[in-house]
Amino acid sequence: MGARWSALFFAPPEFDPTPVRSALQTAVEAVDRSMSTWKSDSDLMCLNRAPVGEWVSVAADLRQVIELGLKIGHESGGLFDIGLGDAVGAWGFGPAAADTHAIKAAMRARRRATDEILELHEGRIRKLAPVRLDLNGIAKGYGADRLAKTHQALGICQALVGIDGEMRAIGTRPDGEGWTIAVEQPDPDRRAPHSILALQDAAVATSGDYRHWVEVQGRRVSHTMNPQTGASLLSSPASVTVVARTCAEADAWATALMVAGPEAGPGLAMRNRLQALFIMRQPGGSCRSLGIGQLFSEGVSAAHFC
């Protein structure tokens, strides 16, 4: 996934973390082998290469993530779309550099809702029309969830895990306090906290325009794609942070709210009862924030999902 994973937990001095580290590495490598668009032999890329109409057997984890992606795609009115692989690749957010001809083709393409194109039956999936799937807006979050489950399977019930800033908290710290997470200022030149969260049995993910970007014809464009245009977002919040039960859900909804934009995004978050923090740039370089849900709108800094 081109990212680092991390895990923090407390243990007695004689504890050997080597087996835990090995199990965690195995967990994230399994997600990468299944869902990477950078590995030509990943399960996802094999599904992408399959002819239209051909049933393809898929592993349970890939099916689970695709199902969740389709569900959030439907609930967001198509603003989260796992069928934008052609656009993501064309703009240079895959293994290859940006390609002007591919960008024009992606922007001209007639698009249907991905849940109308995929048919799922038990452990198999088939495409009813050409589509190139991309799970980069949800797979890192799912990977963090897998790290959390790996800890729990090893009997570790208090931990903080993450992949590239998508974080999942298990239980509390040994002192009973929540795990402290910083929401970054949307500044590409430095890392500084905007606000602080304390998480217990919850996950947080942020989508923004200030970390992952490429330069196309002298213009910096962010990695988030607009499903309606097949192009990078032209107007969006600087960042959107979502707190949810699972990191996969938080990851996907943060992307959907970025696409929705500063005008429609807050309403979409309220309709879906999300806990979300929007940070918008203002003229002159300052930022303003808008919180949706009890966690952010009332200034509460602790999140706990039972």
UniProtKB/TrEMBL annotation:
Q: What is its EC number?
A: 2.7.1.180
| Gene3D superfamilies xref list | ApbE-like domains
Where is Mg(2+) annotated to bind? 137, 251, 255
Which reactions are catalysed by this chain?
L-threonyl-[protein] + FAD = FMN-L-threonyl-[protein] + AMP + H(+)
Q: Which SUPFAM superfamilies match?
A: ApbE-like
Gene Ontology molecular-function annotations: metal ion binding; transferase activity
Q: What class of enzyme is it?
A: transferase
An example of a Pfam family matching this protein is ApbE
For whether the record's keyword set contains Flavoprotein, the answer is: yes
Cofactor section: Mg(2+); Mn(2+)
Q: Which UniProt keywords apply?
A: FAD, Flavoprotein, Lipoprotein, Magnesium, Metal-binding, Transferase
Keyword Lipid metabolism: yes or no? no
Q: How is the cofactor bound?
A: Magnesium. Can also use manganese.
Q: Which family does it belong to?
A: Belongs to the ApbE family.
What is this protein identified as?
A: FAD:protein FMN transferase
Instruction: State the taxonomy lineage.
Output: Bacteria, Pseudomonadati, Pseudomonadota, Alphaproteobacteria, Hyphomicrobiales
